[in-house]
Specification:
The complex is a heterodimer. Chain A is an all-alpha fold. Chain A is built from ten helices and no strands. Chain A has a domain of 141 residues: MetI-like (MetI-like fold), CATH 1.10.3720. In chain A, helix 2 packs across helix 10 and helix 4 packs across helix 6. The longest helix of chain A has 38 residues. Chain A is elongated. Chain B is α/β, with parallel strands linked by helices. Chain B folds into two domains: 217 residues, P-loop containing nucleotide triphosphate hydrolases (Rossmann fold), CATH 3.40.50.300; 67 residues, no CATH class. In chain B, helix 3 packs across helix 4 and helix 6 crosses helix 7. The longest helix of chain B has 25 residues. Classes of the chains: A mainly alpha, B alpha/beta.
Chain lengths: 241, 299
């Protein structure tokens, strides 16, 4: 609140012209305008749909990959250095490759989103599987729990807190990768709305879209992952009750 | 009367359920963890492996379970060689090792389902066994909502419900407080008297071994080997504070101490080779003689 007031004062008395530093109510008005004419809603919808697609692919590949990395010596030896190395690559660096492979298409953006979050998810999954108490694995062995029942009944639930951390991290990576991708070529999502604002010199719109991006990211992080994590941790007995 | 309460186990015995022949084990190139352990265990027998930490008793148990493949010797159960873990030789660990995301009942039912029981049968059996360990009313609780003793009871119920041919227990009550431990001893005795399972129970607590075991096998460490093999002829249920039992446990402790002293006396000479050639150490045999005079009759 105090920050908002400070920003308002700075915009009013500061040396910067209002088209470079709009006042908070200017940004608010832009937000309202974009919401009421449906531009914001459409853009959020498109971005979220892409995110959902890319993220679903990343999760459905990343979790099995992480489990393989943790459980198979061969995979550890061969794929692990590659995964760790590629993890250091900022996701947007995949864009040129994506454009060459898929052209200016949805697929290119999805590819960037997938690559941006896949590795983080698989590394966290690997970590989650490796930090399962050995006692649980041994007891599963002595009880004769094997095969799919072991995978879905012991390994996955035991690693779930770790996997969830990975999914959360992967989500924020995916969200960033998506917007970076959307910014760089016309795509009809929130990224495009940002670019349009810049082209029209409409700083209020740029800032309004930024606010929207932060809000969407935070809402998903808090409400979806936050709640999920809390429930899992309390069921697993990982929080002090 | 006391004289006949603790006697050396007769050899050879009848049909063995579990037969260990010359079992030896080394971890990597390290010191031998086990050396030439030969032991027969009859069906329905409750055997306690007693020894100080690092004497190889857990290694022996894990070898029985199939989690460790011994580097020498043979282990057979019902004539078949042990190869890998099996629910027929169920291990109970020092920790309850429950699945934390499953309720008490689900923990039992999950294991039973893996054994091939239908959902309904598994659930019914789970409830039945939770009742046997006096946990009715707690079937819906998650492990972290239960006390340590209750968790151990769930773990015990799970092991019993699986109905293994052999129950292997690795200091299962080691982490419990004295009171809970005594409760668990009482419970285990009563459940065992009903089911008469073959149990191999590892402990370093002399009194625990005497309360629970039909037979106490005393192991010595470095390398792990059998020092004494005694039958406990006390009537059940046994009370850990029973005077006779307290006296017996003092005897056994004395016995272990003497054996160890003789050994370290020997160790100053060129014992190492000697001990390797004549397991169990001759000192131990002399002690057995002394014991036979004091506590049990000589054979």
């Amino acid at each position: 609140m105090l920050l908002l007031v400070g920003w308002g004062l700075l915009a009013k008395v500061g040396p910067w012209p209002h088209y470079l530093l709009p006042s908070p109510d200017g940004v608010g008005a832009s937000l309202v305008a974009m919401t009421s004419d449906g531009r914001l809603g459409t853009a959020v919808g498109r971005s979220l749909r892409r995110l959902a697609q890319g993220y679903a692919i990343a999760a459905s590949l990343g979790i099995p990959l992480g489990i393989l990395l943790a459980r198979s010596e061969l995979m550890r030896a061969t794929l692990r250095p590659l995964v760790l190395g590629l993890q250091a690559l900022p996701s947007i660096c995949w864009l040129p490759l994506a454009l060459l492979w898929f052209g200016l298409s949805e697929a290119a953006i999805l590819f960037v989103v997938v690559m941006g979050s896949l590795l983080a998810i698989s590394i966290a999954t690997e970590d989650g599987v490796l930090s399962i108490p050995p006692q649980l694995l041994r007891v599963a062995g002595t009880l004769g729990v094997r095969g799919p029942r072991f995978l879905f009944g012991v390994l996955l639930p035991a690693a779930l807190p770790g996997i969830l951390t990975g999914l959360k991290l992967g989500f924020s990576f995916a969200w960033r990768a998506l917007l970076a991708g959307e910014l760089l070529f016309v795509s009809g999502g929130l990224g495009e709305l940002l670019t349009t604002g810049r082209e029209l010199l409409d700083v209020a719109q740029v800032m309004a879209v930024m606010v929207a991006i932060v809000v969407v990211g935070m809402v998903i992080d808090r409400w979806v992952f936050g709640l999920l994590e809390k429930r899992v941790r309390s069921r697993w007995g990982l929080v002090e009750s | 009367m006391q004289a006949r309460l603790l006697v050396p186990s007769p050899h050879p015995r009848g049909e063995a359920k579990i037969a260990l022949t010359g079992v030896a084990h080394r971890y990597g190139n390290e010191v031998a963890a086990l050396k030439e352990v030969t032991l027969d265990i009859a069906a329905g027998e409750f055997v306690c492996l007693l020894g100080p930490s690092g004497c190889g008793k857990s290694t022996l148990l894990y070898a029985l379970a199939g989690h460790v493949t011994p580097s020498g010797g043979r282990i057979t159960i019902d004539g078949k060689q042990v190869a890998g873990p099996s629910p027929e030789r169920l291990l109970v660990f020092q920790e309850p090792a429950l699945f934390p995301w499953l309720t008490a009942r689900q923990n039992l039912a999950f294991a039973l389902r893996a054994k091939g029981l239908s959902r309904r049968k598994a659930d019914a059996r789970a409830m039945d066994f939770l009742k046997r360990v006096q946990l009715q009313g707690f079937e819906g609780a998650l492990p972290h909502q239960l006390s340590g003793g209750m968790q151990m009871r769930v773990s015990l119920a799970r092991a019993l419900a699986m109905d293994p041919a052999v129950l292997l227990m690795d200091e299962p009550f080691g982490a419990l407080d004295a009171q809970t431990r005594a409760d668990m001893h009482r419970l285990l005795q009563s459940v065992w008297t009903e089911s008469r399972k073959t149990v191999v129970f590892v402990t370093h607590d002399v009194r625990e071994a005497l309360v629970l075991g039909d037979r106490v096998v005393v192991l010595a460490g470095r390398p792990g080997r059998v020092l004494q093999d005694l039958q406990v002829k006390l009537p059940r249920p046994r009370d850990p504070d029973d005077e006779v039992l307290v006296t017996l446990s003092r005897h056994v402790r004395q016995l272990i101490r003497t054996a160890r002293q003789e050994e370290s006396a020997l160790a100053t000479g060129e014992v190492h080779r000697h001990a390797q050639e004549h397991p169990p150490a001759p000192g131990a045999r002399r002690v057995l003689g002394a014991l036979a005079g004091g506590v049990g009759p000589p054979r």
